Amino acid sequence: MKDLVFIEGLKAQAVIGVYDWEKKIQQDLLFDLEMEHDNRVPAETDDLAKTLDYEAISNFILSFCAERQFELIETLAEHLVGDLIGQFKLNAVTLTLRKPGAVAAAQSVGVKIHRKSAVTY
């Protein structure tokens, strides 16, 4: 089994949606991430520089959502995961993206994707 670093329940605001009214407001999105990362080196060295900086990753996601606009959560998820893999040299990412309130009778709706890097870090 591969080591995973995770972030759960990261709340971001984004302009997202297909309807005209959605394109004028910020909506809540919830992110869960699992990122493959060999944790043996940071565990052996106790060196923060050898870990995945989940604060930096969280801030990257928050900025990404604040600065970009998409109609579909599927599009946002694909672009975000691609950028995360490149920016943080991730071997693989599983992202669950939820849009609470999109369907009145549901707690949330969303997508879950798993993508691997074309190169191994």
UniProtKB/TrEMBL annotation:
User: Per the record, GO CC terms?
Assistant: cytoplasm
| InterPro entries for the chain | Dihydroneopterin_aldolase (IPR006156), FolB_dom (IPR006157), GTP-CH-I_C/QueF (IPR043133)
One GO term in the molecular function aspect is: dihydroneopterin aldolase activity
What Gene3D superfamilies does this protein map onto? 3.30.1130.10
Pathway(s) served:
Cofactor biosynthesis; tetrahydrofolate biosynthesis; 2-amino-4-hydroxy-6-hydroxymethyl-7,8-dihydropteridine diphosphate from 7,8-dihydroneopterin triphosphate: step 3/4
Keyword Isomerase, does the record have it?
yes
PANTHER family associated with the record: DIHYDRONEOPTERIN ALDOLASE 1-RELATED (PTHR42844)
Under which name does UniProt file this protein?
7,8-dihydroneopterin aldolase
Question: From which source organism is this entry?
Answer: Marinomonas primoryensis
Lineage of the source organism?
Bacteria, Pseudomonadati, Pseudomonadota, Gammaproteobacteria, Oceanospirillales
